[in-house]
Structure to design on (336 residues):
């Protein structure tokens, strides 16, 4: 029986890298009957191992981990250098240096090895799909493999490599777009994407703009086996969401997709930095992520919510400041 079939409620916690994801949040969602997830992004393999150990001390319920699986994409170094020059006034204002643009794979191989050793219930991948050999090795170790997809062609490739499920990420989702090529084209609304991917022979986990039971029912009726929520948990006490981020979630601002913060398309709450730099930022991930990292860290330390990324989906206004268990149990009860 698959992990999804064993869940008391068809609710999955979205892995939210860069801050909000915590062992306490993952464990609380799991204890309430959903599937907890840890974000491995920007964490070392050792840190991820510590996070997974913490979850296992907090709950006996299954938990998943999410890895970045992106391959290097073509980058215009001159465009990155020009963007850095445009960010110099930001650096001066924040009193922080610009970082060094560079490629790295976020410790991918070490994290896959950790997954093979620690055997979480699920390993999900975003920004790309592991090769068939990696998929098979994880499955042989008793670990389910899920892959984030943003259109049907990605889902078809993932299924051909033997994955157990696909996470269909609609354009409404907060945070980084899971597309494998960072393209400006091909954004698909969630329900349409679920319908396009639900006939490929593996379960579909729907994510993006699911802020209440009504949206969850629509996704399940369209063919999803479960729904994955992130923004709904941003205000939970177990989430490590920055105080400035929490405050702006409460203002009801609109969201937009931008490359301004990391060089990869991502949806966040509209703030000054996003408005001023979205037109300038090149497609260059993680190069721009490393370039702006010191600026964003300084802005967080100063509590300046206008100057760092505030990832959130289109339905973030529905988030409530309540324990994660309450979020899961309320949604599960409304779903019946």
């Amino acid at each position: 029986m698959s992990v999804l079939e064993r869940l008391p409620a068809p609710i999955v916690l979205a892995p939210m890298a860069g801050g909000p994801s915590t062992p306490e949040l993952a464990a609380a969602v799991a204890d309430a009957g959903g599937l907890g997830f840890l974000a491995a992004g920007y964490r070392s393999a050792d840190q991820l191992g510590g996070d997974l150990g913490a979850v296992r001390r907090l709950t006996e319920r299954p938990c998943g981990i999410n890895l970045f699986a992106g391959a290097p994409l073509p980058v215009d170094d001159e465009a990155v250098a020009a963007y850095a020059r445009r960010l110099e006034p930001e650096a001066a204002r924040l009193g922080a240096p610009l970082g060094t643009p560079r490629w790295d794979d976020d410790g991918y191989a070490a994290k896959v090895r950790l997954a093979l050793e620690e055997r979480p219930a699920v390993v999900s991948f975003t920004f790309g799909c592991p090769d068939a050999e990696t998929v098979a090795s994880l499955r042989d170790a008793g670990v389910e493999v899920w892959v984030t997809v943003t259109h049907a062609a990605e889902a078809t490739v993932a299924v051909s490599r033997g994955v157990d499920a696909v996470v269909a990420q609609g354009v409404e989702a907060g945070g980084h777009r899971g597309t494998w090529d960072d393209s400006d084209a091909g954004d698909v609304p969630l329900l349409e994407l679920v319908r396009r991917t639900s006939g490929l022979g593996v379960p579909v986990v729907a994510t993006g703009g699911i802020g209440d039971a009504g949206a969850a029912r629509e996704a399940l009726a369209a063919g999803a086996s479960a729904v994955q929520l992130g923004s709904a948990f941003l205000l939970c006490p177990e989430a490590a969401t920055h105080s400035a981020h929490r405050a702006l979630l409460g203002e009801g601002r609109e969201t937009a997709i931008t490359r301004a913060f990391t060089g990869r398309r991502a949806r966040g709450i509209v703030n000054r930095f996003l408005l001023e730099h979205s037109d300038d930022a090149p497609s260059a991930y993680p190069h721009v992520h490393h370039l702006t990292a010191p600026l964003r860290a300084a802005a967080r330390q100063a509590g300046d919510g206008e100057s760092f990324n505030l990832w959130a989906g289109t339905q973030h206004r529905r988030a409530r400041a309540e324990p994660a268990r309450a979020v899961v149990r309320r949604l599960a009860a409304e779903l019946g």
Observations:
- The chain has two domains: 1-70+105-234+315-336, 74-104+242-311.
- The CA atoms of residues 268 and 311 lie 4 Å apart.
- The radius of gyration is 19 Å.
- Residues 287-302 form the longest helix (16 residues).
